User: Fold this.
Amino acid sequence: MRVFVTGATGFIGSAVVRELIDVGHQVLGLARSDAAAKSLVAAGADVHRGSLEDIKSLRSGAAAADGVIHTAFIHDFSNYGPAAEADRRAIETLGDALAGSERPLIVTSGTLLAERQGSLATEEDAPNPNFPRKSEAAALALAARGVRTCVLRLPPSVHGNGDHGFVPRLISIAREKGVSAFIGDGLNRWPAVQRLDAAHLYRLVLEKGIAGAAYHGVADQGVSTREIAEAIGRGLNVPVVSKSREEAADHFGWIAHFFGIDGPASSAQTQARLGWRPVQPGLIADLNADHYFEHAADAVALHS
Assistant:
């Protein structure tokens, strides 16, 4: 299968590219820069120049492929509304290019965007209609038009060597402040998955996914934020402290909202339907590795 991958040189997308190529698929990767194009060639992928805002390039990339995996997102929290709108337009464009065929489109979302009905977010939970990011709504609208669209929800921590997302940001804050903090009692939970396990799931959804279905890329159902803070404290050799919700915004900045959420999630249905089994280290085991503390000082942006 020839697969068009957006975000193909990102933390997650590059692992997806490697997973696809290793099992014999051909990859056409979206690249907005010469450096990204060079990285794709080195990985054995073909290059398609363009960006999420370049509708023409998205349409032609999808038209040239047997399936599309959409991992790209503009993670700019200071302009989140426009970023979410760019994502919605990109999904609609990719779907339009695949309309009238059985070619699959895999759209990335997040478990925190699900409107949880029980103790754990499940694949059956609908997306939260009040959240600005409309990836799932756009995907479901395409599915209603007959496009073979699936949603893959990722947890807030997709971890591994090279991560530059939420957890490295927490490490940078702890290094700057001299303490590793959690909010309140720290019993609120984050689900997590290692990026190679996530990449394997993308391939399974591409090959076996059912149109209109949501899948969860969750290995750790819920790691307490206190455990995360304690692991960071060990890694940096700094004290671990609690911050009240009133103190959290000043201490953590924009990430305080996300770090305060209790968002455990299950992947039981995904594992049963697709035979997916996470095999990589869990979040705390990964945080005990040196690589997180060697590079965390440079972590200022979220993974795509």
